[in-house]
Amino acid sequence: MKTFRMGGIHPKENKFSAGKKIRTAEIPKQVAIPLSHYVGSPSESVVKKGDMVKVGQMIGKANGFISANVHSSVSGKVNKIDVQLDASGYKRPAVFIDVEGDEWIETIDRSTDIKRECNLSKEEIIKKIQDAGIVGLGGATFPAHVKLSPPPGKKAEILIINAVECESYLTCDHQLMLEKGEEILVGVTIIMKALGVSKAVVGIENNKKDAIEHLTELAKSFTGIEVMPLKVRYPQGGEKQLIDAVIRRQVPSGRIPIEVGAVVQNVGTTYAIYEAVQKNKPMFERILTVTGKDAPNPGNYLVRLGVYLQNVVDQAGGVPAGTGKIVGGGPMMGRSLMNLSVPMAKGSAGVLFMKDEESVRKPIKNCIRCAKCVSVCPMGLEPYLLMTQSERNMWPEMEGNRVMDCIECGSCSYTCPSNRPLLDYIRFGKTTVGGIIRSRK
Asked: How many domains does the chain have?
Protein backbone atom coordinates (compact mmCIF):
# COMPACT_ATOMS: atom_id res chain seq x y z
CA MET A 1 0.00 0.00 0.00
CA LYS A 2 1.31 3.44 -0.96
CA THR A 3 2.76 6.00 1.43
CA PHE A 4 5.47 8.68 1.36
CA ARG A 5 9.08 7.56 1.32
CA MET A 6 10.93 9.72 3.86
CA GLY A 7 10.44 9.71 7.62
CA GLY A 8 7.09 9.59 9.38
CA ILE A 9 5.65 8.06 12.55
CA HIS A 10 2.47 6.31 13.70
CA PRO A 11 1.11 7.89 16.90
CA LYS A 12 -1.93 6.40 18.62
CA GLU A 13 -5.02 7.34 16.65
CA ASN A 14 -7.56 7.88 19.47
CA LYS A 15 -10.41 8.58 17.03
CA PHE A 16 -13.07 8.62 19.76
CA SER A 17 -15.48 10.71 17.68
CA ALA A 18 -15.32 8.45 14.60
CA GLY A 19 -18.79 7.56 13.34
CA LYS A 20 -20.45 10.34 15.35
CA LYS A 21 -22.91 12.10 13.05
CA ILE A 22 -22.42 15.80 12.44
CA ARG A 23 -24.49 17.89 14.83
CA THR A 24 -25.35 21.54 14.27
CA ALA A 25 -23.94 23.72 17.03
CA GLU A 26 -26.27 26.22 18.64
CA ILE A 27 -26.01 29.89 17.70
CA PRO A 28 -25.26 32.13 20.72
CA LYS A 29 -26.47 35.67 21.36
CA GLN A 30 -23.28 37.24 20.03
CA VAL A 31 -20.44 36.21 17.73
CA ALA A 32 -17.01 37.73 17.03
CA ILE A 33 -16.06 37.00 13.43
CA PRO A 34 -12.32 37.46 12.82
CA LEU A 35 -11.25 39.50 9.80
CA SER A 36 -7.95 37.62 9.70
CA HIS A 37 -7.96 33.84 10.05
CA TYR A 38 -6.10 32.59 7.01
CA VAL A 39 -2.76 32.96 5.26
CA GLY A 40 -2.41 36.40 3.66
CA SER A 41 -3.51 39.98 4.27
CA PRO A 42 -6.44 40.60 6.68
CA SER A 43 -9.69 41.58 5.02
CA GLU A 44 -11.03 45.12 5.41
CA SER A 45 -14.34 45.60 7.19
CA VAL A 46 -17.16 46.78 4.91
CA VAL A 47 -19.68 47.18 7.74
CA LYS A 48 -19.87 49.57 10.68
CA LYS A 49 -21.48 49.70 14.11
CA GLY A 50 -25.26 49.63 13.89
CA ASP A 51 -25.46 47.96 10.46
CA MET A 52 -27.91 45.10 10.05
CA VAL A 53 -26.46 42.00 8.37
CA LYS A 54 -27.78 38.67 7.12
CA VAL A 55 -26.22 35.20 7.05
CA GLY A 56 -23.83 35.03 4.09
CA GLN A 57 -23.46 38.79 3.67
CA MET A 58 -19.91 40.03 3.07
CA ILE A 59 -18.54 41.88 6.09
CA GLY A 60 -14.83 41.82 5.20
CA LYS A 61 -13.41 42.43 1.73
CA ALA A 62 -10.17 40.73 0.66
CA ASN A 63 -7.19 43.08 0.77
CA GLY A 64 -5.06 41.84 -2.15
CA PHE A 65 -4.74 38.64 -4.20
CA ILE A 66 -3.51 36.49 -1.28
CA SER A 67 -6.40 37.37 0.98
CA ALA A 68 -9.97 36.18 1.43
CA ASN A 69 -13.43 37.67 1.82
CA VAL A 70 -15.19 37.19 5.15
CA HIS A 71 -18.95 36.74 5.46
CA SER A 72 -21.38 37.00 8.32
CA SER A 73 -22.35 33.67 9.85
CA VAL A 74 -25.42 35.13 11.60
CA SER A 75 -28.11 37.74 11.10
CA GLY A 76 -28.39 40.70 13.42
CA LYS A 77 -26.83 44.06 14.29
CA VAL A 78 -23.13 44.93 14.21
CA ASN A 79 -22.27 45.77 17.81
CA LYS A 80 -18.70 46.98 17.16
CA ILE A 81 -15.51 46.49 15.16
CA ASP A 82 -12.83 45.68 17.71
CA VAL A 83 -9.97 43.30 18.47
CA GLN A 84 -10.39 39.76 19.75
CA LEU A 85 -7.85 37.20 20.95
CA ASP A 86 -7.46 34.35 18.46
CA ALA A 87 -6.35 30.76 19.02
CA SER A 88 -2.67 31.77 18.91
CA GLY A 89 -3.15 34.37 21.64
CA TYR A 90 -2.79 37.42 19.38
CA LYS A 91 -5.29 40.26 19.16
CA ARG A 92 -6.92 40.35 15.74
CA PRO A 93 -9.58 42.66 14.26
CA ALA A 94 -13.07 41.17 14.42
CA VAL A 95 -16.69 42.11 13.73
CA PHE A 96 -18.92 41.63 16.79
CA ILE A 97 -22.54 40.93 15.87
CA ASP A 98 -25.56 40.69 18.18
CA VAL A 99 -27.70 37.84 16.86
CA GLU A 100 -31.31 38.48 15.85
CA GLY A 101 -33.03 35.53 14.18
CA ASP A 102 -31.38 33.56 11.37
CA GLU A 103 -32.11 35.33 8.09
CA TRP A 104 -29.97 34.25 5.12
CA ILE A 105 -29.21 36.25 1.96
CA GLU A 106 -31.65 35.32 -0.78
CA THR A 107 -29.07 34.07 -3.30
CA ILE A 108 -28.07 31.01 -1.22
CA ASP A 109 -29.72 27.78 -2.38
CA ARG A 110 -30.74 26.11 0.90
CA SER A 111 -32.29 23.01 -0.70
CA THR A 112 -30.78 19.60 0.00
CA ASP A 113 -30.87 18.64 -3.69
CA ILE A 114 -27.46 17.65 -5.07
CA LYS A 115 -26.60 19.72 -8.12
CA ARG A 116 -24.13 17.79 -10.28
CA GLU A 117 -24.01 19.83 -13.49
CA CYS A 118 -21.72 22.86 -13.65
CA ASN A 119 -21.81 24.89 -16.84
CA LEU A 120 -19.56 27.70 -15.67
CA SER A 121 -16.24 28.50 -17.33
CA LYS A 122 -12.90 28.06 -15.56
CA GLU A 123 -12.73 31.80 -14.87
CA GLU A 124 -16.31 31.90 -13.53
CA ILE A 125 -15.62 28.99 -11.16
CA ILE A 126 -12.49 30.62 -9.73
CA LYS A 127 -14.32 33.94 -9.37
CA LYS A 128 -17.13 32.25 -7.39
CA ILE A 129 -14.60 30.54 -5.13
CA GLN A 130 -12.82 33.83 -4.55
CA ASP A 131 -16.05 35.71 -3.86
CA ALA A 132 -17.11 33.03 -1.35
CA GLY A 133 -13.92 33.43 0.72
CA ILE A 134 -12.91 29.77 0.45
CA VAL A 135 -9.58 28.90 2.09
CA GLY A 136 -7.86 25.60 2.75
CA LEU A 137 -9.54 23.80 5.64
CA GLY A 138 -6.73 21.32 6.26
CA GLY A 139 -4.86 23.74 8.53
CA ALA A 140 -2.85 25.97 6.18
CA THR A 141 -5.88 28.20 5.36
CA PHE A 142 -4.33 29.32 2.06
CA PRO A 143 -6.89 31.10 -0.18
CA ALA A 144 -8.29 28.46 -2.57
CA HIS A 145 -8.55 30.73 -5.60
CA VAL A 146 -4.79 31.33 -5.48
CA LYS A 147 -4.04 27.60 -5.66
CA LEU A 148 -6.34 27.31 -8.65
CA SER A 149 -4.49 30.10 -10.49
CA PRO A 150 -1.04 28.63 -11.31
CA PRO A 151 1.72 31.12 -12.14
CA PRO A 152 2.55 31.75 -15.82
CA GLY A 153 4.33 28.83 -17.44
CA LYS A 154 3.06 26.30 -14.88
CA LYS A 155 0.28 23.82 -15.64
CA ALA A 156 -1.48 21.32 -13.41
CA GLU A 157 -1.48 17.69 -14.53
CA ILE A 158 -3.34 16.10 -11.63
CA LEU A 159 -5.61 17.13 -8.76
CA ILE A 160 -5.01 15.41 -5.42
CA ILE A 161 -7.73 15.58 -2.77
CA ASN A 162 -6.32 15.39 0.76
CA ALA A 163 -8.72 13.15 2.68
CA VAL A 164 -5.94 11.69 4.85
CA GLU A 165 -6.77 13.31 8.21
CA CYS A 166 -3.63 11.85 9.77
CA GLU A 167 -3.81 13.91 12.99
CA SER A 168 -4.74 11.82 16.01
CA TYR A 169 -8.20 12.40 17.50
CA LEU A 170 -9.63 14.48 14.61
CA THR A 171 -12.53 12.99 12.61
CA CYS A 172 -14.28 15.99 11.00
CA ASP A 173 -13.09 15.14 7.47
CA HIS A 174 -13.89 11.44 7.94
CA GLN A 175 -17.47 12.11 8.94
CA LEU A 176 -17.89 14.69 6.17
CA MET A 177 -16.96 12.04 3.60
CA LEU A 178 -19.55 9.65 5.01
CA GLU A 179 -22.35 12.22 5.03
CA LYS A 180 -21.53 14.40 1.99
CA GLY A 181 -19.68 12.01 -0.31
CA GLU A 182 -21.50 12.80 -3.55
CA GLU A 183 -21.28 16.55 -3.00
CA ILE A 184 -17.54 16.19 -2.41
CA LEU A 185 -17.07 14.32 -5.69
CA VAL A 186 -19.06 16.98 -7.54
CA GLY A 187 -16.68 19.49 -5.94
CA VAL A 188 -13.76 17.44 -7.28
CA THR A 189 -15.12 17.68 -10.83
CA ILE A 190 -15.55 21.44 -10.42
CA ILE A 191 -11.92 21.87 -9.32
CA MET A 192 -10.77 19.61 -12.18
CA LYS A 193 -12.62 21.89 -14.61
CA ALA A 194 -11.08 24.99 -13.05
CA LEU A 195 -7.58 23.49 -13.40
CA GLY A 196 -8.15 21.94 -16.81
CA VAL A 197 -7.09 18.45 -15.68
CA SER A 198 -8.68 15.10 -16.53
CA LYS A 199 -7.47 13.08 -13.52
CA ALA A 200 -8.04 13.40 -9.79
CA VAL A 201 -7.04 11.15 -6.90
CA VAL A 202 -8.70 11.15 -3.49
CA GLY A 203 -6.11 9.95 -0.98
CA ILE A 204 -7.58 8.33 2.16
CA GLU A 205 -5.67 6.52 4.90
CA ASN A 206 -6.62 2.89 5.36
CA ASN A 207 -8.03 3.42 8.87
CA LYS A 208 -11.13 4.93 7.22
CA LYS A 209 -12.32 1.84 5.37
CA ASP A 210 -15.98 2.90 5.43
CA ALA A 211 -15.12 6.22 3.76
CA ILE A 212 -12.94 4.44 1.18
CA GLU A 213 -15.73 2.02 0.29
CA HIS A 214 -18.36 4.77 0.21
CA LEU A 215 -16.42 7.12 -2.06
CA THR A 216 -15.16 4.28 -4.27
CA GLU A 217 -18.75 3.26 -4.98
CA LEU A 218 -19.84 6.84 -5.64
CA ALA A 219 -16.80 7.50 -7.87
CA LYS A 220 -18.02 4.88 -10.37
CA SER A 221 -20.43 7.47 -11.76
CA PHE A 222 -17.72 10.15 -12.13
CA THR A 223 -15.11 10.28 -14.88
CA GLY A 224 -11.43 10.58 -14.02
CA ILE A 225 -11.70 10.28 -10.21
CA GLU A 226 -9.78 7.56 -8.38
CA VAL A 227 -10.08 6.81 -4.66
CA MET A 228 -6.65 5.67 -3.40
CA PRO A 229 -6.24 3.90 -0.03
CA LEU A 230 -2.97 4.86 1.68
CA LYS A 231 -0.96 3.28 4.45
CA VAL A 232 -1.56 4.95 7.82
CA ARG A 233 1.40 7.20 8.48
CA TYR A 234 1.84 10.65 9.98
CA PRO A 235 2.28 13.35 8.56
CA GLN A 236 0.82 12.06 5.30
CA GLY A 237 -1.59 15.01 5.26
CA GLY A 238 1.31 17.32 4.43
CA GLU A 239 1.09 18.42 0.79
CA LYS A 240 4.57 17.27 -0.16
CA GLN A 241 4.18 13.94 1.62
CA LEU A 242 0.80 13.27 -0.01
CA ILE A 243 2.14 14.08 -3.48
CA ASP A 244 5.03 11.68 -2.91
CA ALA A 245 2.63 8.96 -1.74
CA VAL A 246 0.18 9.36 -4.63
CA ILE A 247 2.31 10.12 -7.70
CA ARG A 248 5.86 9.41 -6.48
CA ARG A 249 7.11 12.92 -7.20
CA GLN A 250 9.03 14.96 -4.65
CA VAL A 251 8.60 18.74 -4.55
CA PRO A 252 12.05 20.40 -4.55
CA SER A 253 13.17 22.46 -1.56
CA GLY A 254 11.62 25.90 -1.54
CA ARG A 255 9.18 25.04 -4.33
CA ILE A 256 5.41 24.49 -4.43
CA PRO A 257 3.35 21.49 -5.66
CA ILE A 258 2.58 22.99 -9.09
CA GLU A 259 6.31 22.59 -9.86
CA VAL A 260 5.68 18.84 -10.17
CA GLY A 261 2.31 19.27 -11.88
CA ALA A 262 0.12 18.72 -8.82
CA VAL A 263 -2.52 20.77 -7.01
CA VAL A 264 -3.69 19.58 -3.58
CA GLN A 265 -6.99 20.55 -1.97
CA ASN A 266 -8.38 19.36 1.34
CA VAL A 267 -11.60 17.34 1.28
CA GLY A 268 -13.37 19.91 3.47
CA THR A 269 -12.27 22.67 1.11
CA THR A 270 -13.62 20.62 -1.80
CA TYR A 271 -17.04 20.42 -0.15
CA ALA A 272 -16.96 24.17 0.54
CA ILE A 273 -16.18 24.74 -3.15
CA TYR A 274 -19.18 22.62 -4.11
CA GLU A 275 -21.40 24.74 -1.86
CA ALA A 276 -19.95 27.99 -3.19
CA VAL A 277 -20.21 27.14 -6.89
CA GLN A 278 -23.39 25.06 -6.93
CA LYS A 279 -25.32 26.59 -4.01
CA ASN A 280 -23.98 30.19 -3.95
CA LYS A 281 -23.03 29.65 -0.30
CA PRO A 282 -20.05 31.62 1.07
CA MET A 283 -17.80 30.05 3.69
CA PHE A 284 -19.31 30.95 7.04
CA GLU A 285 -19.33 27.59 8.84
CA ARG A 286 -17.26 24.42 9.08
CA ILE A 287 -17.07 21.14 10.99
CA LEU A 288 -15.20 20.99 14.30
CA THR A 289 -14.22 17.85 16.25
CA VAL A 290 -14.59 18.15 20.04
CA THR A 291 -12.75 15.23 21.64
CA GLY A 292 -10.43 13.82 24.29
CA LYS A 293 -9.95 10.62 26.29
CA ASP A 294 -12.34 11.84 29.00
CA ALA A 295 -14.55 14.05 26.82
CA PRO A 296 -18.17 13.53 27.97
CA ASN A 297 -19.58 13.65 24.45
CA PRO A 298 -16.89 13.54 21.74
CA GLY A 299 -18.36 14.45 18.39
CA ASN A 300 -18.33 16.45 15.18
CA TYR A 301 -20.16 19.77 15.15
CA LEU A 302 -21.13 22.12 12.31
CA VAL A 303 -20.15 25.49 13.78
CA ARG A 304 -20.70 29.02 12.47
CA LEU A 305 -17.62 31.25 12.26
CA GLY A 306 -17.26 33.64 15.18
CA VAL A 307 -19.01 31.36 17.69
CA TYR A 308 -16.90 31.15 20.84
CA LEU A 309 -15.43 27.69 21.35
CA GLN A 310 -16.80 27.76 24.91
CA ASN A 311 -20.34 27.62 23.48
CA VAL A 312 -19.55 24.49 21.45
CA VAL A 313 -17.74 22.83 24.34
CA ASP A 314 -20.73 23.48 26.62
CA GLN A 315 -23.00 21.80 24.07
CA ALA A 316 -20.59 18.84 24.00
CA GLY A 317 -20.85 18.36 27.77
CA GLY A 318 -18.25 20.83 29.04
CA VAL A 319 -14.59 20.52 29.95
CA PRO A 320 -13.93 17.15 31.62
CA ALA A 321 -12.49 17.04 35.13
CA GLY A 322 -8.74 16.53 35.24
CA THR A 323 -8.07 18.44 32.02
CA GLY A 324 -4.56 19.88 32.07
CA LYS A 325 -4.51 21.45 28.63
CA ILE A 326 -6.96 22.35 25.87
CA VAL A 327 -5.54 22.20 22.37
CA GLY A 328 -6.92 23.93 19.30
CA GLY A 329 -6.52 21.32 16.54
CA GLY A 330 -4.85 17.94 16.90
CA PRO A 331 -2.15 16.91 19.43
CA MET A 332 0.71 16.99 16.90
CA MET A 333 0.28 20.34 15.13
CA GLY A 334 -2.35 22.04 17.28
CA ARG A 335 -1.68 24.93 19.66
CA SER A 336 -2.53 25.15 23.33
CA LEU A 337 -5.45 27.52 23.94
CA MET A 338 -5.21 30.19 26.62
CA ASN A 339 -8.95 29.83 27.21
CA LEU A 340 -12.13 28.95 25.34
CA SER A 341 -13.13 32.57 24.74
CA VAL A 342 -11.72 32.15 21.24
CA PRO A 343 -13.93 32.52 18.18
CA MET A 344 -14.39 29.75 15.63
CA ALA A 345 -12.21 30.47 12.60
CA LYS A 346 -11.90 29.03 9.11
CA GLY A 347 -8.89 26.97 10.19
CA SER A 348 -10.45 25.56 13.38
CA ALA A 349 -10.58 21.76 13.03
CA GLY A 350 -10.71 20.55 16.60
CA VAL A 351 -10.83 21.15 20.34
CA LEU A 352 -8.89 18.51 22.25
CA PHE A 353 -8.94 17.98 26.01
CA MET A 354 -5.67 16.55 27.33
CA LYS A 355 -5.45 15.00 30.78
CA ASP A 356 -3.17 16.44 33.46
CA GLU A 357 -0.59 13.67 33.15
CA GLU A 358 -0.48 14.00 29.36
CA SER A 359 -0.05 17.76 29.32
CA VAL A 360 2.96 18.02 31.63
CA ARG A 361 6.32 18.10 29.89
CA LYS A 362 8.79 15.43 30.96
CA PRO A 363 12.24 16.53 32.20
CA ILE A 364 14.57 17.49 29.36
CA LYS A 365 17.72 15.36 29.13
CA ASN A 366 20.89 15.67 27.10
CA CYS A 367 20.85 14.57 23.47
CA ILE A 368 22.12 10.95 23.25
CA ARG A 369 22.95 11.18 19.51
CA CYS A 370 20.46 8.45 18.63
CA ALA A 371 19.41 10.21 15.38
CA LYS A 372 15.77 9.17 15.78
CA CYS A 373 14.70 12.76 15.04
CA VAL A 374 16.61 12.60 11.74
CA SER A 375 15.12 9.25 10.75
CA VAL A 376 11.50 10.39 11.28
CA CYS A 377 11.76 13.86 9.70
CA PRO A 378 9.59 13.78 6.56
CA MET A 379 11.57 16.67 5.05
CA GLY A 380 15.02 15.12 5.47
CA LEU A 381 16.21 17.72 8.00
CA GLU A 382 18.45 17.35 11.06
CA PRO A 383 16.24 18.54 13.93
CA TYR A 384 18.88 18.08 16.66
CA LEU A 385 21.23 20.39 14.73
CA LEU A 386 18.55 22.99 14.00
CA MET A 387 17.61 23.13 17.69
CA THR A 388 21.25 23.69 18.68
CA GLN A 389 21.63 26.43 16.10
CA SER A 390 18.41 28.08 17.25
CA GLU A 391 19.63 28.05 20.87
CA ARG A 392 22.79 29.83 19.73
CA ASN A 393 21.12 32.32 17.37
CA MET A 394 22.94 30.87 14.36
CA TRP A 395 20.42 32.17 11.81
CA PRO A 396 22.55 31.97 8.60
CA GLU A 397 23.45 28.38 9.46
CA MET A 398 19.80 27.51 10.08
CA GLU A 399 18.87 28.96 6.70
CA GLY A 400 21.62 26.92 5.05
CA ASN A 401 20.30 23.79 6.75
CA ARG A 402 16.85 24.40 5.20
CA VAL A 403 14.92 25.35 8.33
CA MET A 404 12.27 26.96 6.07
CA ASP A 405 11.45 23.48 4.72
CA CYS A 406 10.23 22.39 8.17
CA ILE A 407 6.48 21.66 8.10
CA GLU A 408 6.27 21.78 11.92
CA CYS A 409 4.72 18.31 12.13
CA GLY A 410 6.30 17.56 15.52
CA SER A 411 7.53 14.07 14.58
CA CYS A 412 10.99 14.91 15.94
CA SER A 413 9.75 15.98 19.37
CA TYR A 414 7.37 13.01 19.52
CA THR A 415 10.11 10.47 18.96
CA CYS A 416 12.93 12.03 21.04
CA PRO A 417 13.84 9.74 23.98
CA SER A 418 15.45 12.70 25.79
CA ASN A 419 12.23 14.77 25.69
CA ARG A 420 14.03 17.65 23.99
CA PRO A 421 11.72 20.47 22.78
CA LEU A 422 13.04 20.25 19.24
CA LEU A 423 10.03 21.73 17.48
CA ASP A 424 9.76 24.68 19.88
CA TYR A 425 13.28 25.82 19.08
CA ILE A 426 12.98 25.04 15.38
CA ARG A 427 9.71 26.97 15.14
CA PHE A 428 11.32 29.99 16.84
CA GLY A 429 14.31 29.79 14.53
CA LYS A 430 12.12 29.37 11.46
CA THR A 431 10.14 32.49 12.36
CA THR A 432 13.34 34.50 12.85
CA VAL A 433 14.97 33.24 9.64
CA GLY A 434 11.75 33.88 7.72
CA GLY A 435 11.80 37.49 8.89
CA ILE A 436 15.43 37.87 7.79
CA ILE A 437 14.61 36.45 4.34
CA ARG A 438 11.66 38.82 3.92
CA SER A 439 13.77 41.82 4.93
CA ARG A 440 16.26 41.00 2.17
CA LYS A 441 13.50 41.15 -0.41
From this structure: 2
